Amino acid sequence: MATSIEEKPDxxxxxxxxxxxxxxxxxxxxxxxxxxxxxxxxLYTAVLRSPFAHARIGSIDTGEALEVPGVVAVFTGQDCKxxxxxxxNFGPPTITQYPLAVDKVRYCGEAVVAVxxxxxxxxxxxxxxxxxDFEPLDPVVDPIAAIGPGxxxxxxxxxxxLAYERIFEFGEVDxxxxxxxxxxxxxxxxxxxxxxxxxxxxxxxxxxxxxxLEVYCNSLNFNFFIWLVAAALxxxxxxxxxxxxxxxxxxxxxxxxxxxxxxxxxLALQTGRPVAxxxxxxxxxxxxxxHGSDRYYDVRMGLKSDGTITALDVDVVxxxxxxxxxxxxxxxxxxxxxxxxxxxxxxxxxxxxxxxNKCQQGAYRGxxxxxxxxxxxxxxxxxxxxxxxxxxxxxxxxxxxxxxxPYKIPTGNIYDSGNYPAVLQRAIxxxxxxxxxxxxxxxxxxxxxxxxxxxxxxERSVFSSTEFWFWFDKPAFPLTSSPESVTLTIDPTxxxxxxxxxxxxxxxxxxxxxxxxxxxxxxxxPYKVNVSYADSAHSLPGTGPGGSRFTVMIAGAVRGASKRLxxxxxxxxxxxxxxSEDDLEIVEGVVRVKGVPDKSRSLAELASTAYFFALNxxxxxxxxxxxxxxxxxxxxxxxxxxxxDLGVFxxxxxxxxxxxxxxxxxxxxxxxxxxxxAVHDAGTVVNPKTLAGHVTGGAAQGIGSAMYEELVYDExxxxxxxxxxxxxxxxxxxxxxxxxxxxxxxxxYTEFGIKGGGEGGRMVAPAAISAAIDDALSDxxxxxxxxxxxxxxxxxxxxxxxxx
Amino acid sequence: xxxxGYLRVGDTAEALTAAARPGARLIAGGTELVNLLKExxxxxxxxxxxxxxxxxxxxxxxxxxxxxxxxxxxDVAAHPEVRSGYPAIxxxxxxxxxxxxxxxxxxxxxxxxxxxxxxxxxxxxxxxNKRRPxxxxxxxxxxxxxxxxxxxxxxxxxTHPSDLAVALVALDAQVRTTARTLPAxxxxxxxxxxxxxxxxxxxxxxxxxxxVPVSPPSAYLKVRERGSYEFALVSVAVAAETSGGVxxxxxxxxxxxAPKPWPLDVDLAGVPLRRDELRAAxxxxxxxxxPLPGSEFKIELAQRAVVRALTKPIGLMGET
Amino acid sequence: MARITVTVNGADxxxxxxxxxxxxxxxxxxxxLTGTHIGCDTTNCGACTVLCDGLPVKSCTMFAxxxxxxxxxxxxxxxxGGQLQPIQQGFKEEHGLQCGFCTPGMMVAATALLERxxxxxxxxxxxxxxxxxxxxxxxxxxxxxxxxxxxxMQEQAAPEEPATRQPATEQAATR
Lengths: 804, 320, 175
Hints:
- The complex is a heterotrimer.
- By secondary structure, chain A is an alpha+beta fold.
- Chain A is built from 20 helices and 29 strands.
- In chain A, strands 3-5-1-12-9-10-11 form a seven-stranded mixed sheet. In chain A, strands 7-15-14-13-8-29 form a six-stranded mixed sheet, with helices on both faces.
- In chain A, helix 15 (510-522) links the parallel strand 20 (496-500) and strand 21.
- Chain A starts with 22 loop residues before the first helix and ends with a helix.
- Chain B has two domains: 5-49, CATH 3.30.43.10; 58-112 and 160-311, CATH 3.30.390.50.
- Chain C folds into two domains: 2-77, Roll (Ubiquitin-like (UB roll)), CATH 3.10.20.30; 86-157, DNA polymerase, domain 1.
- Chain C has helices at 23-30, 86-93, 103-116, 122-128, 140-155, 170-173, and strands at 2-8, 11-17, 49-52, 55-58, 71-73.
- In chain C, strands 2-1-5-3-4 form a five-stranded mixed sheet, with helices on one face.
- Chain C is globular, with a radius of gyration of 16 Å.
């Protein structure tokens, strides 16, 4: 059974729903976002965006723009090509990108010219005055056609539009299908949506002393790869410093968002003045480099007649857009949990990455694993219907059992722990599934259409960069490190400082987590811990947030630094108290001899000694109280040479069951939520309130991807969603109240047993919603095979009885 | 957005003089015009700010409802006598835009909204006869899920976005301008070969108010993908007197289906309030529908909406 | 250029502005009140919501010249007497914010709601906030935060003398 709250170690702070330490500044309008920064002499940037999906850039006339009052300078892609290197890139070297398009534009909205001026208004006036001759080329919009014969080529140097192709095979797939009693097949399409935070990407770059460049920036993960941005700007890495700025949301879209700071840096170097480039919404929605997955699947699943899943065959074409900055990493995420929570041994996974005239993909909450969840659950549901099994029945039958962990899946990744039957059971009880099934029947007799969608999915957490190995036989840029660091300081008066490395606050609760962990370690008040963020010139190794890794990794680093700091405190205290270090303990911020509470020193007293009375320190102890810890990924291995085993790269396996109850209005195709239960297992929960926030916020984004949000390009590659009037983000009217539950199976491999949970409900909700709609309209044979689900599609299926 | 001149006027006469200047454009709440300026769809030389003129009255009398052109959407929607006597208007307003916009936007401005066709609103200048006469229509061969099924032409298939206008047509309202009084149903025009002209108003002509005769029970039903702050896939306003489950008189108008609010010109008197009979009665009005492939679903959806609006009570937040 | 006088959070400001200058930019760039955020540029997201003569409006879709002679309240003007208002406390108590970017607009819109309707239902809260997009929270805790504030306001003792508007410090907001 799952570890119950009672059996958990006796934590003082971990597991408590405390108010966030980050909140006060935001409540009074002092968030300090990138748009709030104003440096003396700062210039502003506006960019001219391509009106064409695919075109050659002819002459560019900037003369008139330079006459516009306030305009200081105008730059083109040619300037970039002459003065800098291509942008950071983990994809094929034959696909290069500059922050301003060179020679060709490859999607609607791609930046072509940057105008730098004394105000944003003047910069936009300047953009209006620029004349560009475009020679339109045939657009490549359909990804299947893009990789077929005769398609126009986006990148001549690459030769075709197939950026990557590989087939991975695990187990005996063909045999398993031959021996299967039932094979279900489907074509599925997961449409393109995106994190779309309210705060866009932005950077303010300032030429600083000694020829160095300082860049204020709300990108995340910059520290890990900051030298790549420096390299693009032809600067030595020690002359390029990023100062982290809080982001008003990321959801993946600021994951190493490198183009914006690269462009701001370039413009500052060229003008010699501080330059801000902050995307407006249009820049972001068309040109962010962070559209989400856009996948076309042919899937087959083989089963035995008793419902045992034996084989899965996935053939996916992913529409990556015009560039491939992160390679095909989003499919590594799929492979980390490709078989879901099920005991499924035989898997084939064929991936083709297509280049098309669209904004390129980046990261969006789930990083592609949420798509695999949806596909897998769609197929399980289809099989269950064919076999006459209930959705919970087929899942229970195939679950990996609690006593099987750690469990190695066919791809080689490890699932560390879990209790899937318990999560499902908890969800069923919280919803009162029987009650809803009765209500469903009753309503059906009245001509109403209520559907219940039950799904169970994985929520992998804490990626390790070893996953970059397995895509290629000889990876060009293999790496195996993905650490996180913390510096912990007790200042001369005994107050705590935590410094984090490689990121700033972006909407999760890094400061609350760090403060709670310090409180746990030292028995101090978490609200008295101050948290700050190092700039890249002063930061220790760090990977940054992504793949639900931050809480686990920061916990490891805080614990490591705490151990070192406590050891030093004990050494000093033992010396002062004339006691053995082994006899000491810290209780509520006081170091004392066990069993002799009077024999003690407060942290303030010890800090005072450490900073100001070196002659009182024991032999060999240096002044000061500061310790750092760089915490490496605790469990990761390399892939095998033949790639039959991809190694361990995403082992801390969260799990979730969502049950959505939806009523469909069969006359209009519209829907409403009647109930929604979400039970998650993210291991030991640090702060139930903030974890619940991620589950809820993620589920709301899942609702968006499932029913509203789509970044649409028409047949000419024209972008059809340039505002939030077209890209429909759910409002308070569309998101239901959720009933939330947790089952905690602590990870055996992480500090405190924490697993990541940041990607939350988006890993699950699209599958639950799809299943609920199918169920509601089962009389009509409706089956959801593409997202987002539009009312017009529901009506069409009801009307024609055919699926898309 | 280009810079622009600005003049705030103190009375209607001053407004008329200023508005008559070439390149002048009236601004009241600004919720539509500011966006058109930002998107560079319109680039007037002078904004004539009429927002402080005393045209904000909302009066209900024995002869009906009178709305000043500058009455705010939120004020009209919240007015108790509008809600009780003219619910289709209150509902149409409440289901429009968002609370903040309803606090700024006015009656006249709402009627002067321009289409939401994505090609008209594109962030750069695409072929669109409404935006740039003679440039062509991108929607006909492009994405036209939102396109009109009635009244479109070869040069434009865009729909009109106003919810209020649909209610006013169903309620047989009149629009008073500085030059004339005309039925609400004649305010907006079909595109023909001049799609850049949305209404019949002349340059410099200004809406002063709206007069709505005493109305039978009315309702407004809006079908859209997101439950708030979205324009209609289709909508319907009905005003009907019934007795004993049979319609005595009824007027209805459709939104989201045509370049203007589309009156449902069928005689419903004597039709029982039952689905099949209603469907049969309204079907002739849809024989004239000429959808594009992507907008065909609107024909069925609109008919369902009409039946529902006539047969089911509709709450103020659109719930049925 | 046009001369305007706007009362912002109780203080009068007179400035020469371009007619095209948006109110949001006037507040942020000219007055350096950066708590009013810009999220979408097209009137959709509500991050820029301020009160204009007591009503929530979108400051990104209003020219500063249109605000001439009006009274504007921004997030910086919510707190009175250096103390957080119940709506601000509610967001803190109920974890009504994650990244904080939509929060000022949400709190401003909710303030107007509570002024008009001191005891709103969940449905009324959701409707009143339907012009404000939050990308982090899924709204559930925002609704709770507004309910928290409504309750706190009702529980408050007899009305006191209105305190002068003065921004709460972060220190006052801590805990």
